[in-house]
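It is worth pausing here to work through a concrete case rather than discussing structure prediction in the abstract. The textbook approach is simple: state the sequence, then state the predicted structure, then interpret. We follow exactly that order.
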Amino acid sequence: MKIIKYLTKAIACVFLGIGVIGCNDNTFLEESSYTLNTQTFYCTPNDLTLAINYLHAQIQYLMMGQAGQHNSMMTGIGLDTFTSTDANFITSNYTSLTPSEPGYVRHWYDNLSKLLNNANMIIDAIDNRDITYTVTGQKEQLRAEAIFFRGFALRCLTGMFGDTPIVLTPTSEAKVDYVRSPRDSVWMQCKKDFEYAAENLPITTEKPGRIVKAAADHMLAEICISLKDYNGAIAAATKVIDGTDGDYHLMTQRFGTRASETVDRYGHPLNSYWDLFRIGNQNYQDGNNEAIWVCQYDYENQINGTGGGGITWSKMPYNGTERYFLSNLRYQTKAITVNGTKIDFWGTGAYQYLNGASAIATTDSAGNSGTVVRPTNYFLYTIWKNFGDDVRGSEVMIQRNAYQSGGKLWKVAIAEAQKRYKDAVASGDENASLYKILPADTMGIFPRIWKFSTDKHNEENPVRYDVDWYMIRMSETYLLRAEAYLGKGDTENAAKDINVVRSRANATACLASDVTIDYILDERARELYGEEDRYVTLSRLSSTDNPVLVQRVKKYGWDWPQYPDRNCPNIKNYMWVYPIPAIVISANTGATFTQNDGY
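Step two, the predicted structure:
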C-alpha cells in the first residue's frame, strides 16, 4: 500500500538540499548539479523505479485523489448505474457538457496526457541511456511496467475522448502540432504495448499494487475485443483464467480479516463477495487471489501530508469512496406536545446507522454528510428482478431497509405514525392535524451500498474505511472472455464464463439463449458496480451509428423527476464521447485538432 512513499522520500531529499547523484557525477570533487531534472534523473534502476512509482501515484490521484465527481467520471457517473446528487453536474444534466467546461473533462484529459508523457520519459531513458542494471531481466521488467502505463493512458484517452494522438516519445517543451489518430489505430498501439507488457512483466510481485502479467493480458483481452479480434481476446483472457499468468481465481470461500463472522449486524448471512470489500482484504499479497491490479490507498501518508490517496487537501480520515456512496439522508426528529404531553414520532435516535449506534442528525459519526452519487433505479431494482438469491443484490450488500435503534424497521415506524394520524381523525380528536406527517418530517434514503462502506466505525470504534481500490478483478476477466465468445457467436461458452461469476454469487445460471451484449453489461453492473471503467466499457462499444452509451443512459439514467423542466437525462446521440477541452484545440496552432462531432 505504500508505493508512493518512496518517490516522496526522493523529492524530500531535493527540498532538504541533499544531493541527488546524477549520471555525470564522476568524482566527489567535481562541481555537480543537484537539480533534479530529466538530465540528472532516469539514470539508474532506482531512478526508474521511483519514476514508475510516480505513475502509480498518478493513478491514485485519478481514482481517489479528487472529490466525488472527478474520480467517478471513469467509473460511470451520470451513465446507467449511478449519477451525481448535484443536478447541475455535467453527466446528470448533459446540457452543461461543453468543450469550455472547465473542470471535470479537462481534469481527465490533462492528467491522462501527463501519465502518457511520464511513461514515455521512462521508456525513452531505458532505450537511450547507458544504464547499468544489477539484476537479470530488470531492464525489461521496468520497461514493461512503463509500457503498460502508456497503453493504459492511451486506452483511457481514446475511451473517453475518441480519436487520440498516438504519442510515443516524451515531450519536454510545448508541442503545438498534434494530430488525432483514429480509435482503431490507437487500439492497435495499445495492443502492441499490452503484448510487450504481458511478455516481460513478472507473474507476481512482493509489493501490492505493482503491475503483473495477468493485468497486461486482461487489458489485452479488452483491446482485442475493441478491435474485433475475438480469438486474440479469448487467448489473452485464457492465460489469466487457466493459470498461465499465475494463481488467480475467484474467491469462492470466506477469507480475510472478518472471515470468522457469519452474519451481519441484522442477521443476514455473510459471503465471500462481501469479504472482497472489507478492510485489509484487497491485495493478492494478503491472500486475495482474485485481485489482479489494486490501486493503493495510503491513509497514514495521506494524513501526514506526505502523499498517498484520498482527498488530498482535506485530509479526510477515510477513503473518500465511502462518502460518495453513502445513503443520502433527509429526516427530522418530529416531536409535538398535545395537552401537556410530549409525543415523539420516531423515538430518540430513531434511525440506526453505524454499528448499532443511532443518529439523530443528518451526519454520521464519521462526519459524513449525505452523499455525492446516487445509484440509478436500474442498479437498485431492475437488474435484480427474477434473479433469485443473488448475494450481490441481497440485503447484506445493498441495505434497502432502515432500522430504528431497537431494531424496528423504519417503514414500520412510519406506518405506525400514519395510523396514529388516521385514528385521531376517525375519533374526532381536535389535535388530529398535528399528527399528520409532512414531507419535512419524513426521511429520504436510498439503499446503502456495502461494497463501499463498513459497519465498523462509530464514536466508540473509529475504524477508518481504509481500503485499496480494485482496478482489475478476475471476475471481469471472465466477463471479457464471455464478451469475446459472444462476438464469435459462441453463446454456449459465453454462458459458461458468465456462470462462473454468477455461481459465486449464488445466482441463477444463465442460458446460452440469454446471452446478449445487454445481458453482459447488466452482469458487469451486478458484479462490478462502481469499480469497472464503465465509461470506457460503454464508449468502446459505441459508434456514431450505434451509440450504446447514449442508448443506455436514455433507457436507464436517472431522470431527476423533481426537475421536470430539464427532461433529464437529456443526453444527445453524439455524446458517447466527451468533448475535447477547448484549450487543447486552441493551443494546437501547428495542426488542425478537430472537435468531436456535435460539440
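Step three, interpretation. The longest strand covers residues 291-295. Residues 323-452 form one domain.
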